[in-house]
Amino acid sequence: MSHLEKDSFGAKLGMWLFLFTEMLLFGGVFILYSVYLTRYPKEFGLGGHQLDLVYGATNTVVLLTSSLLAAMSVTAIKTGAKKLTLGLLSGTVGCAFIFLGIKYLEWSAKFHHGIYPNSPKLIAGPPGESIFFSLYYLTTGLHGIHVIVGAVLMSWTAVMVQKERINAGDNVTLENVTLYWHLVDLVWIFIFPLYYLIL
Amino acid sequence: MTEEHAEHILSYGKLTTVWVALLVLTAATIMVTRVELGVWKVWAALAIASVKSGLVIAFFMHMKYEPRLFRIILFVALFTLAGFIGGTFFDVLYR
After folding, report:
1. Does the A2-197 domain belong in CATH 3.30.160.390?
2. pTM (2 d.p.)
3. Which of A117, A123, A138, A184 is buried most, with the most CB atoms less than 10 Å from its CB?
4. ipTM of the complex in this document
């Protein structure tokens, strides 16, 4: 048992170290954003006002809720409630799909208006606007990839819970996958005000 | 590390309370940025986002109940990021 205890400590520490590299990755993208914001405040303002606050706010609520369900699934597995764990994990994955669906609607509306990387409209417009939308697609795209990865990991974890490879006594894998999911939520907590609110 | 790490399980009630707080803060950040406060709304939005992150890290990510080593490396990472941001802006603003 003491051996198991030690293993889960190391596994979690390793996961946190990985999450720090993720923080620095997204931190770099946010630095790019703020530097260009100070250079092109007017164009960023115009760009930001074209983003849909309703989509952004809905996705914030969806991700916060998915984070709650993920955190609850850890409580459920530790108290031995297998069915509840599976239900909560399905809920988390469901929220991930809702998030991606809303993102799809949001991106298609932008594409429809001719706003996508290297589009004729952006090339003809002022450079600040094209930089704004390039950063918007880069940041939300990178975040979206993380959402997809998180949903895949979460589904895989659910299978492991179903097979009882993850159980009340040994569940650090579930904990680490939920940590990854919370990081996805954390990044969105900053994307939302930076792109949808402050401009 | 002196304290022995006993497994701590967060109750559903506590997690739900954190979630409600996060939703309230989200509503607050939307409202505060609808008012014309100039540069202050940027700082207000970032401050609220930091509080929200703190809640997610402390409770959802269980950081409050982890051994001290985890918090030390968290602050090393945040300090490094702050260093990058500070260094970049020193260059951008005073070039």
Report:
1. no
2. 0.93
3. A184
4. 0.93
